[in-house]
Write a structure and sequence with these properties.
With 423 residues, the chain is an all-alpha fold. The protein contains 17 helices and no strands. The protein has 2 domains: 190 residues, MFS general substrate transporter like domains (Growth Hormone, Chain: A); 197 residues, Up-down Bundle (Growth Hormone, Chain: A), CATH 1.20.1250.20.
């Protein structure tokens, strides 16, 4: 057992522990436990607040465009600032990057609680999303500094389980709270969750060996560091493979997710309730995927990734061809499962095989590239749906995913060589 002052970690020379022992070992390390609790409770608060914000904006404006603007305010920062955020994470103490991000978001949402003005809400959502771009890569790049490489899969799985559970219960809680409580109180509770997260992270001793020792060198130097990030993706076999695979999946899947409501109503002839059931099915599938990665019974991350890509591609293709609601529910759940196992496996591989001092840039750069692919898919899919029909868009999108899933099987076979034989 570990203590707060000297957590004891399992070394790679020990026998592989059983699943319940893995959980015990993870939560026994109080540094990881505090990080996990901080992230989990703030995630739930954020989801509840996001649903409440959407309801509030629509109630006040009765405008779909206003709600769309709110969504854009969450997406645009990732493209504008994502690359810079990765540099900051690699150069600065990761603990204080996370603490600063939480404190800023706490102030922002307390501001909405006091003055719930629509333009201010847009500005706060934009600023909050921007700040979150620093928190996420700092959290992911901190885990390899706290946890043995052989347990990173379980740590990522545990984080994803609580994240997906929040996605399931959060919207329902938000609906109840929005009806029963004042909107400002919901925003204040979200702000409080960020304060709790910051307080917990302040108590975590994160080693500084994952910080790259370089001085800031102005705008020119910063652009050079960004270019270095892209060059690192090209030169590192694992990072390059992840970027190409993730870009392909988002290029095909962005339109499938965004146009899901059209698919449900026009192709499946379902209702709004049917759409809600499918969204829930995907979330439940995601929880199952996170649990499945935990109980993988000795399968390597690469093996989990192979199977998940193929399952995702096949399920997406069958979704595009389906007309029965019950079949679509099942297939969307399978897609949710596969997407989550892919995400967990990818994060684990990057954490295991990339230098700690470059993880922040790597996660941020890959995030920007996949987000651009998703936006391209969303925009092109929306236009194409009006021209060729939603069914055709779904078939094209699923074909891209399936093609990507089949193509990545070959590169993954040389993953061991690309990572020095560690895989």
């Amino acid at each position: 057992m570990s203590t707060a002052s000297a957590p004891q970690r399992v070394t790679d020379s020990n026998p592989a522990p059983k699943s319940y022992e893995k959980f015990r070992l993870l939560v026994a390390d109080r540094r990881f436990l505090r990080l996990w609790v901080a992230l989990s409770q703030s995630n739930l608060g954020t989801i509840i607040n996001l649903v409440a914000l959407t309801l509030y904006v629509y109630d006040k404006t009765q405008s779909g465009a206003a709600v769309g603007t709110l969504q854009m305010a969450m997406v645009i920062p990732s493209i504008l600032v994502g690359l810079f955020a990765g540099i900051v994470v690699d150069r600065c103490d990761k603990k204080w990057v996370m603490v600063f991000a939480d404190l800023v978001r706490a102030v922002l949402f307390f501001g909405i609680a006091l003055l719930p003005d629509i333009p201010l809400i847009y500005a706060v959502v934009f600023a909050s999303s921007l700040t979150g771009l620093f928190f996420a890569p700092a959290y992911l790049s901190s885990l390899p500094l706290l946890i043995e490489k052989r347990h990173l899969m379980e740590a990522n799985s545990l984080s994803e389980v609580t994240s997906q559970v929040a996605q399931i219960i959060g919207p329902g809680l938000a609906g109840i709270m929005y009806v029963q409580w004042e909107f400002g109180l919901i925003c204040a509770l979200n702000a409080a969750s960020f304060l709790i997260s910051a307080a917990l992270i302040m108590t975590v001793d994160i080693p500084s060996k994952g910080t790259e020792e370089r001085r800031w060198s102005g705008l020119k130097g910063t652009m050079g560091h960004i270019i270095e990030g892209f060059q690192h993706l090209r030169s590192n076999g694992v990072a390059k493979w992840v970027t190409l695979a993730g870009g392909g999946v988002h290029l095909g899947g962005g339109a499938i997710v965004v146009l899901m409501v059209m698919f449900v109503k026009n192709i499946l002839h379902g209702s709004s309730a049917t759409y809600g059931m499918i969204v829930t099915a995907m979330a439940v599938g995601s929880v199952c995927g996170a649990i499945a990665t935990w109980f993988r019974r000795g399968l390597r991350e690469s093996a989990v990734l192979k199977g998940s890509f193929v399952v995702l591609g096949v399920a997406a293709l069958f979704v595009s061809l389906s007309s029965a609601i019950w079949l679509a529910l099942l297939l969307f759940a399978v897609m949710g499962l596969a997407q989550t196992t892919i995400g967990i496996s990818v994060n684990t591989l990057l954490q295991q095989h990339l230098p700690a001092a470059t993880l922040g840039r790597t996660f941020a750069t890959i995030g920007v590239i996949t987000q651009v692919c998703r936006l391209v898919s969303t925009g092109a899919g929306g236009v194409a749906a009006d021209v060729v029909g939603i069914r055709t868009v779904y078939i094209l999108g699923s074909s891209i995913i399936l093609f990507t899933s089949l193509m990545v099987l070959r590169p993954i076979s040389v993953l061991a060589a690309a990572t020095g034989g560690k895989e």
